[in-house]
Every structure is written in structure tokens, then in C-alpha cells.
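Q: My labmate handed me this sequence with no annotations at all. I'd like to see what the chain might look like in three dimensions before we decide whether it's worth expressing. Could you predict it?
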Amino acid sequence: MAHAESVRLPATADIWLSDANASERNTSMGAAPRLKLKAHQELSAIRFDAGSIKGREVKSGRLWIRKAGEDKLRYLRVSTINQDWNEGRSERSYGPADGATWLYADSNNKKSWGWPGSGFCDVIM
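A: Here is what I predict for the chain of 125 residues:
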């Protein structure tokens, strides 16, 4: 019988995406030092290096988040993303599109999330 073991997976990339309004859908902040979470209109995606658990059976997992200040976040939904994406280099909140946005997995190359016209919501859940 195998014993349980804790393994930490390092985050290798993260992005913030917004569907709050049309002007925010093609903005980026992949290199910003913080992630913004706001219920269903604004989401964050995090890529983890899962190489250390390749071939293993995973029975549970935990996501640890450190908040930057006061918050009212009550729910957190977790999903896989079935498309590769580019983190980008934008450090500004609501900055010009660079890397992944709500509309593109890579706005620099106009790479769609799944098919022409698809968005982030089409490759999660």
C-alpha cells in the first residue's frame, strides 16, 4: 500500500482576465505582482508545473492564496483550462493587450482560445 505524500507544485505563470465590460475584454496584466479576483466577471488563471506528479494518482489538492488586503471574496471556483496560453509582460492593471486576454489565448498572435470567435469561458469548466 502506497503512503500519502505532499507535493508542492510551483506556479509558473498567471494572468488576470475580465469580462466585466467590452473595454476590458482585450486587456492584460500577466506580469503584474498581484491577481485580481471578482466573482464571475474577473478571473485569474494560474499555470502550475505538474512534472513532479507525472504518473501518480492524485486524490486531493489544496490551493493556497495570500490576500493583499481587505477582501469580500466568499467563493472560489477552480477549473482546468484545456488550451495553452501566453502570460504576457504587461504590468499594468487593464493594460494594453499583451499575452492572454478574455478574447485570446495570445493576443500578440491573435491565437483564439479554442476556435475563431471563442473566449476564455469556452475552454474552462
